[in-house]
């Protein structure tokens, strides 16, 4: 009986002792509430219920399936939101027009604002894209705006605001892809020389491509086909260079580079002129010929002036010439 009693007592004391050991290892205190298996199951069920219902926890935002969806292409603006405004009527003599360069998809807001110091009775605003009338998306006091989500080239072009009242005032926004900076004047070089052409852009295009005109058809320059003729290098993300080696007269013509952006293409054209090696000598030869003609003329004039200076009497000179000619003829008769 004592052994049985001791065993029962030890069995009763064993769970509390194990519980105290678990609390001490976990850093808790005996005063902390103990989570039973039922409480843990209930807490897990509540968490699952909150996740299913999409409830927001205080510790952070809810990551539901709806929030994790990728935005459609219509709302992808490359993270850029651009605003442009034209003040009407503007200073006297100013051109109410602005050019907007867009390379990637963007959300653009265009606004026309009436100068508060300019008195305009019952102003009415009309927006147009080309000749098509469109409605403005927002209006505040003396300001009218349209918002464009530009994801492709179909939204590019000219947008105009027309303000009507006592008079009519209009302003224009021109949306276009970045322009290419290329040499405007012809590139003049010589046979057997090397021509270098460079194109630059303020924005980074996706690709650069070079073309040349052969006859009436454009031909893409592929350096892999003409390894000893054309060398294309990308000096930086915004700069491309074309080198043409061993020039001949057949290489003369029009060349252009094409930059492809997300919203369209842009190009820059250049003209190449190839001269023969004798071309630089032609002006020199012409100058030498003119000098020879001038010197010959001067010498002949000097000889004529000296000859004329010996005959001061006019008629005496003529008689002397006749006597000389007569003596010469008589001498010839005597010899015969």
Describe this structure in words.
By secondary structure, this protein is of the alpha+beta class. Helices cover 29% and strands 35% of the residues. It has 5 helices and 18 strands. The protein has helices at 2-25, 37-53, 65-68, 281-310, 315-335; strands at 81-88, 97-101, 106-114, 124-129, 132-134, 138-140, 143-150, 157-164, 168-176, 180-181, 187-190, 195-201, 207-214, 217-220, 230-236, 239-244, 253-261, 264-275. It has a 5-stranded mixed beta sheet, with no helix packed on it. Strands 11-18-17-13-14 form a 5-stranded mixed beta sheet, with no helix packed on it. Strands 1-3-7-6 form a 4-stranded mixed beta sheet, with no helix packed on it. A hairpin with a 2-residue loop joins strand 17 and strand 18 (264-275). The N and C termini lie far apart (193 Å).
Classify the helix fraction into a percent range.
Answer: 25-40%
**Overall mean pLDDT score?**
75
Assign the structural class, choosing from mainly alpha, mainly beta, alpha/beta, alpha+beta, or little secondary structure. alpha+beta
Please count the helical segments.
Answer: 5
What is the H-and-E element order?
HHHEEEEEEEEEEEEEEEEEEHH
Query: What low-confidence regions span 5 or more consecutive residues with pLDDT below 50?
Result: 1-11, 16-79
Strand order of the largest sheet: 2-9-8-4-5
Report on the biggest sheet: 5 strands, mixed
What is the 3D shape? elongated
In short:
The chain has 336 residues and is an alpha+beta fold. It has helices spanning 2-25, 37-53, 65-68, 281-310, 315-335; strands at residues 81-88, 97-101, 106-114, 124-129, 132-134, 138-140, 143-150, 157-164, 168-176, 180-181, 187-190, 195-201, 207-214, 217-220, 230-236, 239-244, 253-261, 264-275.
């Amino acid at each position: 009986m004592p052994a049985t009693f001791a065993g029962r007592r030890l069995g009763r004391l064993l769970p509390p002792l194990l519980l105290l050991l678990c609390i001490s290892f976990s850093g808790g205190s005996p005063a902390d509430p103990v989570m039973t298996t039922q409480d843990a199951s209930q807490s897990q069920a509540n968490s699952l219920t909150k996740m299913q219902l999409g409830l927001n926890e205080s510790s952070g935002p809810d990551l539901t399936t709806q929030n994790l969806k990728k935005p459609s292409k219509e709302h992808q603006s490359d993270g850029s939101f651009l605003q442009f405004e034209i003040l009407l009527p503007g200073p006297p003599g100013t051109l109410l027009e602005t050019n907007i360069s867009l390379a990637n998809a963007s959300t653009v807001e265009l606004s026309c604002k009436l100068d508060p110091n300019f008195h305009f009775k019952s102003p009415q605003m009309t927006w147009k894209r080309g000749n098509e009338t469109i409605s403005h998306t927002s209006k505040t006091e003396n300001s009218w705006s349209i918002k464009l989500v530009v994801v492709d080239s179909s939204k590019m072009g000219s947008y105009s605001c027309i303000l009507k009242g006592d008079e009519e005032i209009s302003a224009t926004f021109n949306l276009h892809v970045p322009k290419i900076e290329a040499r405007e004047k012809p590139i003049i070089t010589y046979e057997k020389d090397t021509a270098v052409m460079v194109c630059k852009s303020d924005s980074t295009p996706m690709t650069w491509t070079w073309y040349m005109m052969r006859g009436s058809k454009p031909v893409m320059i592929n350096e892999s086909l003409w390894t000893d003729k054309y060398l294309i290098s990308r000096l930086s993300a915004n700069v491309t260079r074309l080198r043409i080696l061993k020039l001949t007269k057949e290489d003369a013509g029009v060349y252009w580079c094409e930059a492809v952006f997300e919203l369209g293409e842009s190009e820059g054209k250049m003209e190449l002129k190839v001269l023969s090696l004798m071309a630089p000598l032609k002006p020199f030869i012409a100058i030498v010929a003119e000098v020879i003609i001038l010197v010959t003329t001067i010498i002949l004039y000097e000889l004529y002036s000296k000859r004329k200076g010996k005959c001061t009497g006019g008629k005496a000179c003529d008689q002397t010439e006749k006597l000389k000619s007569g003596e010469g003829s008589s001498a010839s008769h005597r010899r015969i």
